[in-house]
Amino acid sequence: MSEPYKVTYATLTADNEDLHTAYEAGVDVAKSWLGAEISAPGDPDPGDPVDVVSPADPSVLVARVRAASPGAVEAAVEAARTAGRDWAATPWQDRLPVLRAVADLISERANELAALMTIEVGKNRLEALGDVEEAAVFFRYYCDQVEKNGGFEAKMEQLSDTETTRSVLRPHGVWGVISPFNFPMALAAGPAAAALVAGNSVVLKPSVQGTHVAWKLYETMLEAGLPEGLMQILPGGDDVGKALVANPGIDGLTFTGSYTGGRAVMDAFRGDYPRPVITEMGGKNPTIVTASADLDAAAKGITRSIAGASGQKCSACSRVYVDAAVHDELVQTLGKAVSEVVVGDPLERATFCGPVIDAEAVERFRSAVEHAREAGGTVVAGGEVLQGAEGHPGYFVQPTLISGLPTDDELFSTELFVPLAVVAPVDSLDEALERANDTVFGLTAGLFAGEQDEIDRFLAQIEAGVVYVNRPAGATTGAWPGVQPFGGWKGSGSSGKAGGGLHYVQLFMREQSQTVVTG
Ligand SMILES: NC(=O)c1ccc[n+]([C@@H]2O[C@H](COP(=O)([O-])OP(=O)(O)OC[C@H]3O[C@@H](n4cnc5c(N)ncnc54)[C@H](O)[C@@H]3O)[C@@H](O)[C@H]2O)c1
Ligand SMILES: N[C@@H](CCC=O)C(=O)O
């Protein structure tokens, strides 16, 4: 019997046979779920059916999704408000066991949920298992935070013997949670868990392209014993998200997705008084490599962050600034590593890079490569669209590295969300830091360097919320709750507090100062 395994995004190899056997059994279960019809529970007037297909093979129907009607949005918010009253009044000590049971049931079902995710959004098995386990860990971590902080209730100083004051963090009410396609379990579960742990109820609007996984999360939460009504789900696209944002019954909102979507949500979430809104948005994440760096480690970490989840992580590395003295050597080593990435059916054990999500993403890739060539760049590795080639019926592209472009080229500033990075030489760490920071984004960043002084300067000057030094498991990717709090600066995130960190649950609560005079 081999050792029990735990998959995180930093898991480098998976030679544990039990893991693969269990995942493959999960594939059989997930296949039996395919083709489900999904609409908001009790919706009398859902939208026309939209087919969600597998990006690895669009002939595979994953789910037929009918968007929530305006009436269903109203009903979900109202039901969440009603159920939320009892939940908010439930002592935190009684809320936590329910949410820990949710975490345990998610972990128990990890293999079938991960397999469904592989089919629905194209993640390889380790990435998908990591995504599911991260969802469970979010529930556990936020429960632990509430417990460690005594439910965020504290006695304050006294001005007289007859007066006592407590500071209490209390829930807001109903939270809207809008989630993206690329972490269809973890990034729906994370904000939902924090809201629920804090005593709120939740209305979830997942991405259309991750609807089936989000639906299974919803079902799992109910089956684990979450009180009826507390968690609502609204299938559908941006219009359903907009209807949720416009609903005056929403007391707080989290949005995880693109920069444009996040900015639109922040503008639209207005009402008679300000309500909390947390937006987690895109990235254009740089890695800096100095002349003192271990170039093999750099090539490994950067490759994982270019090609992991097919470049569809907000944390993906898409820019590399390397000291001119080692530029050619790094480009050669990195180019080789990128060209050796195994691209293919994400259900296969050997695959590292599955498909991108849809035809639009393939088109973004194709036009970026074309632009790079026209602008005088060199395609060092990859560059080809594989869609339609032997064994690649879905939206497959090659992980790609491009050199030789000027650093003001658009490929250094636009988030593409495909497995493509540009590399450029710099004359100094100062120049690298200036270029790395010269963006609206500030999500993640990596450094490979051998000198302590370089590490200190990077940590002091880089403008990003999640930073890594000398990390072959992922130059810019692979944060884990309780280990690396994950949140963006600047245009990558609005709250300045990070998911899976020490200060996140508190964002879902508001402080009440309670002074009581006796005698
Ligand atoms: N910072 C983070 O933690 C983080 C994590 C994951 C993904 N992302 C970012 O998300 C993007 C990829 O995900 P995506 O393509 O699903 O993003 P997206 O912005 O297209 O959609 C995200 C969600 O928002 C909804 N939505 C979009 N516009 C809306 C609007 N105006 N009002 C209400 N709802 C709206 C969508 O239906 C979906 O559920 C990338 O930019 C990536 O960097 C950021
Ligand atoms: N938390 C993930 C990224 C989530 C965004 O897509 C990471 O750290 O790589």
From TrEMBL:
**Which reaction does this chain catalyze?**
L-glutamate 5-semialdehyde + NAD(+) + H2O = L-glutamate + NADH + 2 H(+)
Domain Aldehyde dehydrogenase, residue spans? 49-508
Could you confirm whether the keyword Oxidoreductase appears in this record?
A: yes
What PROSITE patterns does the record tag this protein with? ALDEHYDE_DEHYDR_CYS (PS00070)
The record, for InterPro entries, names: Ald_DH/histidinol_DH (IPR016161), Ald_DH_C (IPR016163), Ald_DH_CS_CYS (IPR016160), Ald_DH_N (IPR016162), Aldehyde_DH_dom (IPR015590), Proline_metab_enzyme (IPR050485)
Q: Which domain of life is it from?
A: Bacteria
- Indicate the enzyme's highest-level EC class: oxidoreductase
Keywords assigned by UniProt, alphabetized: NAD, Oxidoreductase
Coiled-coil regions listed: none
Q: What is its EC number?
A: 1.2.1.88
For this chain's UniProt record, which GO biological process terms are given?
L-proline catabolic process to L-glutamate
Q: Tell me if Oxidoreductase is a UniProt keyword of this record.
A: yes
GO cellular component annotations of the record: cytoplasmic side of plasma membrane
Which terms does the record give in the GO molecular function aspect? Answer: L-glutamate gamma-semialdehyde dehydrogenase activity; proline dehydrogenase activity
Pathway as given in its UniProt record:
Amino-acid degradation; L-proline degradation into L-glutamate; L-glutamate from L-proline: step 2/2
Name of the featured protein:
L-glutamate gamma-semialdehyde dehydrogenase
